[in-house]
Amino acid sequence: IHDKEAQFYEARIREQQLVNRQQQMEFEMLASQINPHFVCNVLATIQAMCDTDVDKAKEALGLFSAYMRDNTDAVARTEPVPFAMELQHVKRYVSLEQMRFGDKLAVMYDIDTTDFRLPALTVQPIIENAIKHGIGKKENGGFVRLSARERQGVVRIEIADNGVGMDERTLYGLTGSILQTAESVDRPEGDGCSHVGLTNVRERLRLMSHGTLAVSSQPGRGTTVIISIPKGI
Question: What pTM did the predictor assign?
Fold first, then answer.
């Protein structure tokens, strides 16, 4: 009897720990998406448009409103969402950034499949990192390519940029922080926010979709993030 009681309480503790971890990830996900620099940049761009192109400014406000609503709604989602929904969110974000970067930012889509689900706010934060830390730091700008393909029951999502890239030490610090346990999430190295964001994405992929996330990069040549999600699990 005592063994059964102990097993019951251990199971309850593990269940509560999982709930607490999921709640922590939801908070981190929301916090990482409310980027004050991005909000200020978008609002400044829209303000400038009001003097030159009112219709364009109205369009930008609509995109920005939808983008922020998606971020807020995503926190309440406890199940994976259709990829088409995530892709729409990505395109809204990209449209807002292209209003600011203009010809210095090109984004290409190579989507072979949309028939799968993934955690909300999985791809968009990675695209944001590529633009902010890769293309944004390159004098002449660059491109980001998003592809999605299914092979032998596994969906492979690839986000590649030709930005400034990372050296081995920086990449090791980043991938090391992604592989840390939940207890270390509050102690990321480097720029912090991007690491917490990627750690959050990786953890939600693992818990909600049995997926994985891998990063490769070379200085001056860019960065590639690969997400793998098995279907039918």
Answer: 0.78
